[in-house]
Amino acid sequence: MGHGFGDLARVRHIITYTLSPFEQRAFANYFSKGIPNSWRRFREHVFRVVPPFVISYMIYTWGNRQHELSMKKNPADYANDN
Fold first, then answer.
1. Contacts of 27 (CB under 8 A, 6+ apart)
2. What is the 3-state secondary structure (H, E, C) of 38-71?
3. Cα distances (Å, whole numbers) of residue 28 to 23, 33, 42, 60
4. pLDDT in tens, 27-41
């Protein structure tokens, strides 16, 4: 009753190569190329990503501080209440 998932269509003139998962090297060139590449990508994007987050955090903390101050009562308004 039908074909398996890999045999749904017949494709001609395309050659595919596969490698067994047991023959692959999961961490090939990890220390020689992977870490330096990650560091390079971090350096290139840090000045695009960090400033909006810092500015957003500063606005958020300022807004919370202003809100807390506006919620306090002024003690001078109640100085003569006995």
1. 34
2. HHHHHHHHHHHHHHHHHHHHHHHHHHHHHHHHHH
3. 12, 9, 21, 44
4. 888 899 999 999 999
